[in-house]
Amino acid sequence: MPELPEMEHYRSQLSPRLCGQRITGVTVNRAATINEPVDVFTSALVGKSILFVERKGKHLLFHLDDGHRLHLHLMLGGWLAYGEEGPKKDSHFQVILTFGDGNSLYFGGLRLGYLHRMTAKAAIEELKELGPDPFDSRLTLEAFRKRLAGKRGKLKTTLTNQRFLAGIGNCYSDEICFDAQVHPAVAVNSLDESTVERIYHSIRKVLTTAKDAGGYMEHPLTPDDTLTGGYNNQCLVYDRKGEPCNVCGTEIKFETLTGRKMFYCPHCQQGA
């Protein structure tokens, strides 16, 4: 599932390409991906311009010049492509937006994801339960400690709870725990102050590194894109079951925790 680094990468790459662009065409190949009749959705978008692109956790909001938003959530398998033509046949994409410069934004893999047109008020209501962004300047170490206070779940479960923090999922929760040298299944209420501080700094360190490397998803955004997916080969534990730990050489273990994948080094990450 695309997480904060992937969505921030998309936002930063799409903003200079889309801002100020007028939508000249809309193709919907799967009506279930949108939230209103195809003809209503299409007629409402043609002629509108995108003012800016905003990220909220794992969500993207395309702000339109009529005050509405396009709310995108890629869910498990969604991805984006941009250019004069898509990397696959148009029929492979659930929605395609074409712009005045001849380029198109292709929304693929949205069998579980969606692209909804809504008012600004509805978008705010939709996302009001999201926790703070990990990069929010108000999320100081002390604020992070307070958010953890009273929590009784496992660390990975807490980090991936979108009401606790917005944007962290399976991949980066494991990478954060490895960087902080703490087992992902440790009980949150057992963490001492120094461990909490390590986790806090690891959150920003790992997410920044992944974002700058283009995230771990390997679908190129544009035909000449060599950045997207650059973090995939940098993962230290995620999806590395049976491989040696880069730090100590111990075999990376895989388990499930409350239905989620969990990868960790049993030597570097103890205490569960």
TrEMBL record:
Its EC number is 3.2.2.23, 4.2.99.18. It catalyses: Hydrolysis of DNA containing ring-opened 7-methylguanine residues, releasing 2,6-diamino-4-hydroxy-5-(N-methyl)formamidopyrimidine; 2'-deoxyribonucleotide-(2'-deoxyribose 5'-phosphate)-2'-deoxyribonucleotide-DNA = a 3'-end 2'-deoxyribonucleotide-(2,3-dehydro-2,3-deoxyribose 5'-phosphate)-DNA + a 5'-end 5'-phospho-2'-deoxyribonucleoside-DNA + H(+). One of its GO terms (molecular function) is 8-oxo-7,8-dihydroguanine DNA N-glycosylase activity. Keywords: DNA damage, DNA repair, DNA-binding, Glycosidase, Hydrolase, Lyase, Metal-binding, Multifunctional enzyme, Zinc, Zinc-finger. The keyword Signal does not apply. Residues 2-114 form the Formamidopyrimidine-DNA glycosylase catalytic domain. It comes from the Bacteria. Its cofactor is Zn(2+). PROSITE patterns: FPG_CAT, ZF_FPG_2. InterPro entries: FPG_cat (IPR012319), FPG_Glyclase (IPR020629), FPG_N (IPR035937), H2TH_FPG (IPR015886), Ribosomal_uS13-like_H2TH (IPR010979), Znf_DNA_glyclase/AP_lyase (IPR000214), Znf_FPG/IleRS (IPR010663). Residues 236-270 form the FPG-type domain. GO terms for biological process: base-excision repair. Pfam families: Fapy_DNA_glyco, H2TH, zf-FPG_IleRS. Monomer. Belongs to the FPG family. This is Formamidopyrimidine-DNA glycosylase. The lineage of its organism: Bacteria, Bacillati, Bacillota, Bacilli, Bacillales.
